[in-house]
Write a structure and sequence with these properties.
With 312 residues, the chain is an all-alpha fold. Helix content is 71%, strand content 3%. The termini are far apart.
Length: 312
């Protein structure tokens, strides 16, 4: 296959010099991507929650909603920032930053609902952010140590797709929170695999013609479309707080595993470092659980206040 390079260089010179800006560019691009994905997710969830059941009916409903189309456009922008991030930095560094998408979603969704997040949600967001900061400071995955292993990547994706299919089928047969959890797991797996396929595509972008004949580009397109559809189903079945934390944890973990196996991007793994990495992940999980327990519901103007109640 044509993706044999293990680094990505933009043709515009020093601004995108990977050696000199190995941390700044991918982190800034990843945070920007998470923020825009937060906006996209909020808009898409708002419209998907009112859609009828069934994939065809769901898609037909969504493509006629201006806000959903705006959310889709935002997701394209976020994907561009994401490609920049993983093209200039390690996948293991960039993927965890995407977890912050749920933190950005909190104020965006509150503004859309003309409400305010509760103290519990703000505290949970702070815990999530602190855990993410700790994890990123400690994990510091190495840059790719070898050319991407195409056979390993294909095997990884081939193993992950059937798991996602089983979860998606069960989720579509179920309803409510359970359906949202199952579909969120399926979407997380698919989007994690998509991240790996995108990384494989980006590192081979120096030869666009040859790239069209390589499987990673088409795998990325297929996985991106499938992951987006699974997300819309999850949004329709349950509140955003049910599926988004699952997607935001599972997707990055799949991406980190892909990066370690395919690109040799190994996180720091000395015993003390592992302890702090686990503490960071624990804080992230605890914070996301707190965010998942509540859904912002606006009060009427006559009540003159705001409240947060349990997720539907």
């Amino acid at each position: 296959m044509g993706v044999a390079r293990n680094s990505f260089t933009f043709p515009s010179g020093p601004l995108f010099n990977v050696e000199g800006m190995s941390i700044v560019i991918p982190i800034v691009a990843a945070v920007g991507s998470a923020a825009v994905f937060g906006l996209s997710t909020s808009l898409e969830h708002r419209e998907a929650g009112q859609a009828p059941p069934g994939s065809i009916a769901l898609v037909w409903h969504l493509i006629r909603q201006p806000l959903w189309l705006l959310g889709l456009a935002a997701s394209v922008v976020a994907l561009g920032l994401y490609a920049l991030a993983i093209g200039t930095g390690s996948l293991g560094l960039v993927q965890p930053i995407l977890i912050s998408g749920i933190v950005f979603t909190l104020p965006i969704r509150a503004a859309m609902e003309h409400s305010l997040p509760s103290r519990q949600q703000l505290g949970s967001a702070a815990v999530t952010t602190a855990g993410l900061a700790m994890f990123l400071l400690i994990v510091s995955p190495t840059s790719a140590t070898n050319a991407p292993q195409g056979h390993a990547a294909l095997l990884f994706i081939t193993a992950g797709v059937p798991v996602a299919v089983v979860l998606a089928r069960r989720g579509l047969r179920d309803s409510g929170h359970r359906s949202g959890v199952l579909l969120g797991c399926a979407a997380g797996i698919v989007l994690g695999l998509m991240a790996g396929a995108l990384k494989m595509t980006v590192v081979g972008i120096d030869d666009p013609i040859a790239l069209l004949g390589d499987w990673p580009l088409w795998a990325f397109i297929a996985l991106a479309g499938w992951g987006t559809l699974l997300n819309q189903h999850a949004y329709r079945e349950a509140p955003l707080a049910v599926s988004m934390p699952i997607v935001n944890i599972l997707g990055p973990l799949i991406g980190i595993a892909f990066a370690a196996l395919v690109f040799g991007e190994i996180p720091h793994h000395k015993p003390l470092q592992i302890v702090f990495e686990l503490l960071g992940l624990g804080a992230i999980a605890y914070g996301l659980r707190g965010l998942a327990e509540t859904e912002i519901i606006p009060l009427t103007e006559t009540e003159g206040a705001f409240e947060s109640v349990g997720a539907r």
